[in-house]
């Protein structure tokens, strides 16, 4: 494809007034905006989450959130509406704040604030707070207010967390202490109500049961023996009229008399009759002989003297009656022991359950006491600011020069944009122009070949009018547009405010 560069250049020259007009218009507007846009000063401060001075192995921290989570919480607390309004009103951050609504102030503070966070495994956690202000001191003051709020709220949050942790464990310890007391009282009451059937005395009661069973068996044998002796003695007496040959039951005094006589005989073998011990034994023997002799001839209820067989039968009956009474008491004692032994397994299960519950509560109580002690230590650490905390490693200082706008860049962009728009306008006009201007246009449109072409020749008057109108438009573009922009900036609203409103409507963040 062959381009007729001379033709396009001629077209450009013929329409250069459009180019100059658009170029001058955009360039003037850009230069005016570059010099009228207010300077923006940026101040920043950097904070870091400082490790605790006491190792976590010795004293676990009360705030267990991850570093990034802590920074996010700090940012949310900082950017609350009340904080932004207080700082803006305190420092008079924006011009004409009396004309701004609270929502506009909050939005402007939020737009001018930038918070960057960085945290990673094995890396320090940083937070950088940046604010764009109209002056350097004002921007630095806002950032320092931000830092003060972040540090204050972080310290309060940690202290509050430590205090709430202590209060929680204090409540747990109090509740568990009450449960321990209640369970101990319950166990004590149960033991008092079942003291005859407790597991710790089961072995003793089983031994007592065996002893009583042996005694009961012996008593029943003695009763049976006495009954047998009585029957044989009565049978012998009925048959022979005598009671000899049957071992007569002796009274306790008679048995004691026989023992004393035996002891007397043994003592005389080694001692003389005049020995005091021999005399004492003889006195006891004499006294018992009188008692035994009185027992051998008893009287019945009518006063008559009882026969020897009656004496023996009465003695045996008395002994059997005593043994029967002893047997009855042994049976009662065995029944009581059996009942207590039968109740022991159930008591064992109940006591084991209560003891297990008591042990569980005791373990929970000990754990809660240990945690309470650790929480109190953590509270002291937080109060002394020796735990994990946010600290400032770079305080905000007032910048000496503005960070934006870059006026030369804005002006250069305006010059480039004006040139591009001027060329684009000429190209657009050329694309929309369908008139015949070259010989080849005649050949293409009508299929004829011209012999000669004569261009349109303007009169001097037309040329003067054309140039005068161009000069007027150029002056309006170069002088009028900056003047209008300046008037809007001074008397209507600042350009940065207008740009911010437009960007907000378009959803663009400047």
Automatic annotation (TrEMBL):
Annotated keywords: Coiled coil, Membrane, Transmembrane, Transmembrane helix
Coiled-coil ranges from the UniProt annotation: 173-236, 313-340
Segments crossing the lipid bilayer: 18-41, 408-432, 470-492
Family matches, as InterPro entries: Bact_polysacc_biosynth/exp
Protein name according to UniProt: Uncharacterized protein involved in exopolysaccharide biosynthesis
Organism: Albidovulum denitrificans
